[in-house]
Amino acid sequence: MSDNNKILLIAMCTLVLSGCVTTRSCDDNTEVRLIRTQTEFMVNNGIRNYEDGNYSASMSILQSLVENRAATKSEKLLAYKYLAFNHCISPTESRDTRERMCRDSFRRAFEINPNFSLTQAEAGHPVWGPIFSSVRNKMSK
User: Fold this and answer.
1) Cα(first)–Cα(last) distance of the chain, in Å?
2) What gap in Å lies between CA 101 and CA 88, rounded to an integer?
3) Which helix (H) or strand (E) holds 30?
4) Which residues contact 80 (CB under 8 A, 6 or more apart)?
5) Which pTM was predicted?
6) Mean pLDDT in order along the chain per 10 residues (141 residues)
7) R_g of the chain computed on alpha carbons
8) Sign of CA dihedral 46, 48, 50, 54
């Protein structure tokens, strides 16, 4: 093997192995993984679309995620949480449909994790906060 081929092989191996490490974020000292699975990408993309106001795209991505057998429980839990948020504020659904779909998404989240909770700010939201509390109370009985 020539020296050029050896250097190329070492560079390729280094590149491949560097993608398999984790690193610490400067902001909050949490680990950030450099390689993401398809389902991790879907979660992040669904949330990003929601935060950017692309609710239809967000719902489509998150619905695909919860139907994906490769998705983990924690990924599905996040998807149901953001699906609930999407449904609660959806401008394309009637009020009854919005509340029913929002309630159903929260219920599914509780089925995955009976201890599912929202942050204080999320739980205090005037639209989905009361729906979340109602579902939590029903699921705890």
Assistant:
1) 70
2) 8
3) none
4) 62, 66, 105, 106, 108, 109, 112
5) 0.74
6) 58 46 47 73 95 94 96 97 94 86 97 96 95 94 77
7) 20
8) negative
